[in-house]
Description:
By secondary structure, this protein is mainly beta. The protein contains two helices and 29 strands. Strands 1, 23, 24, 25 and 26 form a five-stranded mixed sheet that branches. Strands 3, 4, 5, 6 and 7 form a five-stranded antiparallel sheet that branches. Strands 12-13-14-15-19 form a five-stranded mixed sheet, with no helix packed on it.
Amino acid sequence: MFNRKLPLLIVTLVLALLIAPAALAQDDEPLIFREEAPSGDNLELVPVVTGFSNPLQVTDPKDGSGRLFVVEQSGRIYIVRDGELLDTPFIDLSDVASQDVLSGYSERGLLGLAFHPDFAENGLFYVNYTASTASHASRVTEFRVSEDDPDRADRDNPRVVLTIGQPYANHNGGHIAFGPDGYLYISVGDGGGSDDPVNAGQDRSTLLGTILRIDVDDTDNGAYGIPADNPVFTDGTFAPEVWAWGLRNVWRFSFDQATGDLYLADVGQNAWEEINFQPADAEGGLNYGWPAYEGSNRYIGPEPETDVVMPIAEYDHSQGCSVTGGYVYRGDLVPDLDGVYLFSDWCSGRLWGTYRDIDGDWQTDLLMETGISISSFGEDADGEVYIVDYAGGRVLRLESSG
């Protein structure tokens, strides 16, 4: 007997097979636009390890080892494995990095660490520090892991990649990170002082007040190469290394590991702190306005000759004094933060989340009053986010208590 339901069943099965891959692909796409604001109600900071002195960074080499590396401002880098701090430093650069921090507040010292994208194979990593010499220049130097011990670095054959003069003691920038394109990005402050005394902010021919972008693997004509799509190749007024400019002192930048978008936390002068943004598909050469603008507010000097990219988030000094940039959350421990860029303030300890709503407009919400002087954020291979407690000498992980 003919079954009238059979044709319908066949059609349903065919449609299901056709739709399923599309639905699966959609589920795999990163969350960019949020229908609801994130909540900090169940957010907690769980201590991972303590015992550091003036820690400034925590990072994951993403080599499959599960290790975290913690940078101390005075020059030592330590390894944390399975929540345990190893006794012997991975590397000790206290003899070459500025020791000013031992006498009080300082923006000098060992400020940045980045592992080569092929670190698991080539063992290369890079540090950014202000030198202990009289010039206190910023140096980006390449080192290699010891052949005998993966938990120790080889100090015998350093390669100085880049040296940048620093006219003042502050605004050294110092952060370094490899982008999705495999190039090394470097934060350089405007030279220091106040109100940009060396006029670096709107000078794209200097390395000061910028984000640099170089190819550390191209050593045919020197210590590094210049990527073929850096702005200098379409506008000769740029210094070859410059990728973005008009920045005062970017204290941590990061790439969204799911989209490649770039987030820049630029420390303000007297009134405004800001978060800047560059889409992954944007060309280099964007001008973020300093010192003509502090945040989105007109500050000093003439109006820039080029268009200025305004921040996606900003706050005034009633809410803090110095921004610390973080990461877009892509982990599993706090699903409510998916697609949210996290950042904090050094003075107030406030933790904010910035995100795009379904209309594509940027929104910023206060998530937590941590009471911590957060010097840095970190991200592991799973997308989980950590914060560095500078005064407490701790590394903590963001988790959900609910």
